[in-house]
Design a protein that fits this description.
Length: 456
């Protein structure tokens, strides 16, 4: 018990000694003139002209200071400059709290540590933690970016900035806005959350999400909370008039790879819309530099990608779209390919063709020709002066179909062709019985309003 009492006394003495050490480093102030006062029972010193305040490795200069001796604090006025090694803080008016080693200003503040410049309406700097907390109209400048926020915490040792409230970060290629952003300057890594928007200044593309991770050194970006991509473009229509053409993509996960090629990847519940083109799939690869879009099945048991263009629907294990001058020029469907086209005048009638692969070319932004390769089976309806005239079933090794206004106008068969004609009286009212084994008309074609609703 005596030992315990002695231990307690030693601890109390040590605590008192440590506290005394902490309090022993009083701030020191000198200047051209000094006036001592007692105000409300508290001793203060007013120092005027060429004021210099020091505490350890912190030095502050200003025009006028009021030192609160017992509290170990000082109020600073006029041309306030705070220095610690490579750090400089400037303001017109502020406080310095000696016991906490904290400086604070609500009169506009600038921090410069030779790595970044940070400005705000008000701010605090904690010397023991090498941490700044700036608030209201915050701006951060470094060699590559400018960041704006309502509040920003800057951790100097980690080269880390945590910004919240109306965050915007601008570099030479993009603008990012968000509710919050956590940025590591050394590794050039950023994490953004809440109402995230990324605007590419190079290709007029915006991506909306609620979470973003950007790894600049790896040239990789992950967007994985309700992302929607919107790319605005302008094209000339057949009449030579300028039209706005918008590409929209939604998915559960989006990734951008900017290392050797400019590649954009969307996975899981992907929806794409561009003009009269639309798609639903689980995997999309967009090669931006080559203007190629690839959609694929993710595995053997997964659903095939579906593509719609005008009144046509395509399915296959893989669909590749080639774009030239902002228009679809070619489209390849590989493995288990199926194409159907719904008649505009008789919507209950579907031209259908199945084959191993399909290669489609476009002319004047419409389907011009489709080449069906490998075990072709087809049903197409006949018309005369827009009046129904039965249908023809055919099969061949390969086939080519020529289209006019997205309707079948000519069929060419190659390799063991067979065909069978059904007169109109056998067809009318019984169109549902004239379908190929793989026929399936999908009603889940995405629309623009549906994707717009997904934005935040």
């Amino acid at each position: 018990m005596i030992v315990n009492h002695k231990l307690l006394i030693i601890l109390l003495l040590l605590t008192g000694f440590v506290f005394a050490q902490e309090r022993s480093e009083s701030i020191k102030i000198v200047g051209d003139s000094l006036i001592g006062k007692v105000v409300n029972g508290e001793s203060i010193r007013e120092v005027h002209g060429h004021v210099v305040l020091t505490q350890g490795n912190v030095t502050i200069t200003c025009d006028h200071a009021i030192q609160y001796i017992a509290k170990n604090n000082a109020k600073l006025k006029g041309n306030v400059i705070v220095r610690q090694d490579s750090l400089t803080i400037t303001t017109e008016e502020g406080f310095y709290f000696g016991d906490r080693r904290v400086t604070k200003s609500t009169a506009g503040i600038i921090l410069d540590d030779r790595k970044i410049v940070l400005t705000a309406d008000s701010g605090e700097y904690f010397f023991n933690e090498d941490k700044a907390i700036f608030q209201s109209d915050v701006t951060l400048f470094d060699s590559l970016t400018i960041m704006f926020a309502d509040q920003l915490i800057y951790l100097r040792d980690d080269d880390r900035s945590i910004a919240t409230g109306n965050v915007k970060i601008i570099d030479e290629n993009s603008v990012i806005t968000a509710d919050s952003l956590d940025h590591y300057r050394n590794t050039k890594t950023s994490f953004a959350d809440g109402h995230v928007k990324i605007i590419s200044l190079e290709n007029n593309t915006s991506i909306y999400s609620n979470h973003l991770e950007d790894y600049s050194e790896e040239k990789y970006t992950l967007i994985n909370v309700n992302p929607v991509l919107v790319q605005l473009d302008s094209i000339y229509n057949e009449e030579g008039e300028l039209e706005i053409d918008t590409l929209m993509i939604s998915a559960k996960i989006m990734e951008a790879f900017r290392d050797t090629a400019n590649v954009f990847k969307a996975t899981d519940s992907v929806k794409i819309i561009r003009g009269t083109f639309a798609s639903v799939n689980d995997y999309t690869l967009y090669l931006r530099d080559d203007d190629i879009i690839i959609t694929e099945k993710v595995n053997e048991d997964a659903a095939q990608p579906i593509l719609w263009y005008e009144n046509s629907q395509l399915t296959g294990d893989s669909i590749t779209i080639y774009i030239e001058e902002k228009r679809i020029k070619r489209l390849d469907v590989v493995n288990n390919a199926f194409m159907l086209s719904q008649s505009k005048l008789y919507p209950e009638r579907f031209d259908q063709t199945s084959s191993k692969d399909i290669k489609i070319s476009f002319k004047n932004n419409k389907i011009h020709q489709a080449k069906f390769l490998g075990t072709v089976h087809s049903i197409y309806y006949l018309y005369e002066d827009n009046e129904v005239n039965g249908l023809t079933k055919f099969s061949a090794i390969n086939a080519t179909i020529i289209f006019e206004d997205n309707e079948v106008s000519e069929v060419r068969l190659y390799g063991s062709p067979t065909s069978e004609y059904y007169p109109e009286k056998q067809v009318v009212g019984d169109e549902k019985s004239f379908t190929l084994p793989k026929f399936r008309f999908f009603n889940n074609r995405p629309n623009r309003k549906e994707l717009i609703k997904l934005i935040w």
